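Why do we care about 3D structure at all? Because function follows from shape, and shape follows, mostly, from sequence. That is the central idea of this module. The next example makes it concrete: a single protein chain, its amino acid sequence, and then its structure expressed as tokens.
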Amino acid sequence: MTPVLDKQLLIVTGKGGAGKTTIATAAALLAVREGRRTIVVEVGANAWIPALFGVGEREPGIEIELAEGLSSIAIDPDRALLEWLQELGGRVPGRVLAGSGTFQYFTAAAPGVKELVTMIKIWELTLGKRWRRRSTPYDIVVLDAPATGHALAMLSSPRTFGAIARVGSVAAQARRVQELLADTDRSSYLAVAGPTELAVQETLELERRLDEDLGRELDTVLVNGTIPQRFNASDLRTLERAAGADELAAAAFAAARAAHDRARFQHSMIARLRRRGMRVHTIPFQFERELDLAGVNRIASVLARALR
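And the structure:
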């Protein structure tokens, strides 16, 4: 199997709140460490990643250099569709087009077109020959995809739109995007999950839908925010006897028991994924109030073992 960082596109998705953007950024940092010119893509009008590197906010759609060998871009699907329709409409002013009934009608009448245009922009970033003159190509594009449901809609958009439009330049681009997403030598899928029952169930659904829609499977599942299992049953019995009637010792035992139960539950969730044949790695819980760039770099070091 080709390591995920040796491909053109790494797609990172999973349940919202599981640390998906942090993992995508860490994967991008790891790719740069290994000598790959990398861009990490956020989807939406607001970008989080540049601020992590101390870079001021920029307009969506603009590539930003964060560090040597590392760039980022935020792609706003609404803006991307508007720009695409402007090109079709002979550069009609965006304000006029956005306020027109035609724009709203087209969005509703062509299911998946907004997601498709977003995916086309991401596909363009993977090209060896860039569409802008003097633009150096990237070795890998790391996509911080939306949460599972929306990500699946994006990834399915080439097929959805292809069922409507079978000819023309956009249809041809849709086919190329679909080929990229289906090609195991060019793209990888990484799921980020918290160690919870709901997140694990969502990951299993993601695996099922990837297989149905793209004939693909998850390359790696990262269970984020896990805690170590520090005590076994014998240790707990010893601690309970030692606590006796002492209130402080009893409180310490209760905390130890709670940590043990939580870790055991997390391990059962991880085992559930592994029983389905998934390649699962864990990311330790980061005991920090706010994760900074140094913290993300530490996670990148953990990923070095998981993504090879």
